[in-house]
Design goal:
mainly alpha
Amino acid sequence: MSILGSFGIVAVLLMLITLELVRLRRLKERYAVIWVGFAVLLLLGVVFPDTVATVSRRLGFDVPANLVISGGIIVLALVAIQLSVDITRMRDKIDHITTRLALVELESTERSAAKHIDTDGDVDP
């Protein structure tokens, strides 16, 4: 099997795995778009290898593989930035929820303490 055939199989498998993860609700659609897009680009590179060579020459790459590797690094960097933004957003939500929970627990404790105090100021046993 040629290297192009191997990449074609990888592209199809990547697409199928991504769609299955979305179906099982283990991957959000917005991340699935990234991976399906990557699989489609990989598949287009397999189907039209001359196009990859032409584009790489026009962009100044001597070897088409350098274009593919550079593109992969850029995609991975963008995914890492997106995940960092999502982690930051979720961390902010967790901090907000933790603060609200602490306030609710404080109010609950204060109400419980107020119920145990008599009108005379004595604490119920």
